[in-house]
Amino acid sequence: MSLIAISDLHLGPDDDDLKAAFVELLDFVTPEVDSLVINGDLFSFWFGYPDVIPYRYLTVLAKMLELSDRGVNFRYFHGNHDFAMGPFFETYLPAAIYSDFALIDYQGTNVHFEHGDLINYEDTGYKLLRKVVRSKPINWLFKAVPPHIGLGIANCCAHISRKYVIGKNTSFYYCCLESAYRRMRDGADLVVYGHGHRTIFREMVICRKKKLLVMIPGIKRSEIYFLRLSGENSGLFAFDPEIRQERVVHSFDLNSLGKAVEG
Ligand SMILES: [Mn+2]
User: Fold this and answer.
1) So what's the pLDDT on residue 140?
2) Cα dihedral 89, 94, 100, 101 in deg (nearest 10)
3) Which of 45, 95, 189, 193 gives 257 a disulfide partner, CB atoms 3.0 to 4.6 angstroms apart?
């Protein structure tokens, strides 16, 4: 059995090819997966209205429900595009929801999952904005506006915000390293980030123990990147939905993480 983690697909309501590709990926991993982690920004924007499901995401939601019915355990880490998950994810699917981060024990390895929008400590403006958009008054305001208007405006803003995140922060890589170092020093063996839309795979030795930092980039050249944690076949993989095949981007030995390094 294995844990599969994905991040930053930014599925928009009109991205039919991408939604179909994600459904293909879920179908592809169904025989092996027992735990699915969404490390934020699965959607270009999501707001969990009490009694409304956006119908253009039905194929994706139905596939997730199918996996849940088979006993797959879901974890959803808030991204900066999807943080008001609402009843579908919280109680109906259901997924364990994490607003910041969590340290999870998977087969004896301590894995720190976090979307990554908070790791740039220089970006104080964003931290303030994050607090405001997640506040109760904004949540209330959103519920008061009809869904087709609210979602229309939010999807438009999400597009602009994504360009802003990708274009900025040349120091982002170093923030990742520093932030991961702190998590590893506090006990994480593997740190998993998203958000940066780039691949980072960096083995580190902290306190004489082998550790690993992985950033899942989302999508590159029509391939969906995913992390697999499994006794025999752990690594960062790229899935091509056209040919329904995966390829190894980086592999590692899950059992070696957190173990003492010789010499
Ligand atoms: Mn993000």
Assistant:
1) 85
2) -150
3) 189
**Ligand 1 centroid to 116 CA: how many Å?**
7
Residue (of 263, 253, 224) closest to 39 by Cα position: 224
Q: What is the CATH code for 2-256?
A: 3.60.21.10
Ligand 1 center to residue 246 CA distance, Å?
24
Ligand 1 centroid from CA 196, angstroms: 7
Helix, strand or coil for residue 223? strand
Tokens of 164: 């802003």
Residue 228 has pLDDT above 80, yes or no: yes
State the greatest distance between any 2 C-alpha atoms of the chain, in Å, as a whole number.
63
Q: What separation in Å is there between the alpha carbon of 95 and the centre of ligand 1? A: 19
| 134-146 pLDDT per residue, tens | 888 888 888 888 8
**Is-contact 63 25, C-beta < 8 A?**
no
CB 21 within 8 A of CB 224: yes
Rounded to two decimals, what is the model's pTM? 0.93
Domain ranges of the chain: 2-256
